[in-house]
Structures are given as C-alpha cells and as structure tokens.
Amino acid sequence: MTQPPNRLVHSPAPTTRMRWARRHRTLTALLAALVPVLAVGITLGTLGASHPAGGTDSAPQAAAVTTGARWLTGPAGRLLRAVNADVGRLSTGERAGRRDVARVAGTHLAADTQAALSGPMPPADAKMYRSALKDLERAGTSAVSGKFDNANTFLNAGDSDITKVTAAVDHPAAVNIPAAVSEPNGQ
User: Fold this and answer.
1) What pLDDT score does 54 carry?
2) Most C-beta atoms within 10 A of its C-beta, which of 2, 48, 137, 153?
3) Inter-residue contact 133 to 113 (CB < 8 Å)
4) pLDDT tens for residues 96-147?
C-alpha cells in the first residue's frame, strides 16, 4: 500500500480555529501580547497604595519618629527640596561648563531661597537656617551675574549650614525602651 506523495501521514486536518488564526495573524499576535500586559495592569491596580511600589507620593511621609518630622515633611520641607534641587542644577551646570544653564539655575535658586525664607522656620537653629538660605541666595545672584567663584564659596557655606540644621532637626525622638524580661529558666 502506497501513500499519496503530497500528503503527510500523521498531519491532522486544520481546525476552524487554526484557519481563523492563520487568516488573522496580526490580531492573534496583538491579543497574545495584550493578555500579559492586562494581567500585570490588573495586578498592579489591585495592589494600589498598599504595596510599597504602588504609592503616588513624591516624598515619603515620615511618622513622628524625629523631633522635626512635621517640619521636614510639611511645607517647609517642600521649599527646602526646591532649594536643594536648584543647588544641584547650578552645580551640575557649572561643572559641565554650561554657564547658561547655571545662570538659569541661579535665578531659580535666588527665587526659591526667598520663598523658603518667607516659609516656616525649623524648630531648631532657625538663625543658622536663615543665614544658610541667605548664603544660597547670594550664590544664586552671583551665578546670574557670572561670578561663579563667588557662587561656589556661597554654595559651600550655605549647603554646609543647611546640612547642620537638617541634622539637628532630624534628631531621633526619645523612645521608651521596655525593661528586659528575665526568663524563668535562666536563659
């Protein structure tokens, strides 16, 4: 008994679904790619803010575990973050040799330090904080006028003082530690 030459021996006939998939290859590929994406989206959507990566806050809200946590996470903290971002842009622009970018960052720095000076003062070392912001404002105005050596001097002084103030404010709050429990077995 001989087989017809063009026909495979064990090949089943194509089903209706297989024929449909062959005719609509683009749609089939799109559906195959969309199903995992949809599954990941649903998973992330159901986790929401309860998952550490699912929150939408730009800065973590610290619990009151430090003496100045409320000041750091409130409006003053937002103002200070803007000042720090401007300091970073000014330093980066100046180091990269992009004086135009540094001048623009200096303008922003001078404006943001004025806003921070009019905002809430820290619960500790307010005088040093004001002095540091004034140094940073001088750094911004020096950068705008093209005096980058002066700007660097003021940046270093202001940044150092801001670090000291935030360290003093972010001092850990006192915690009551419970007494040790003695084991009955002596362990």
Assistant:
1) 46
2) 137
3) yes
4) 888 888 889 889 989 999 988 888 888 878 898 898 889 989 888 988 888 8
CA-CA distance, 187 to 183, in Å (whole number)? Answer: 6
Tell me the β-bridge partners of 49.
Answer: none
CA distances from 102 to 30, 93, 116, 128, 155 (A): 47, 5, 20, 26, 13
> What is the C-alpha to C-alpha distance for residues 51 and 49, in angstroms, rounded to an integer?
5
pLDDT of amino acid 151: 85
Q: What share of the chain is helix, strand, coil (3-state, %, to 5)?
A: 65, 0, 35
pLDDT digits (tens, 9 = 90+) for 59-74: 444 445 566 777 788 8
The DSSP symbol for 50 reads G
Distance CA(36)–CA(57), nearest Å, equals: 27
What does the block give as tokens for 31? Answer: 């559906």
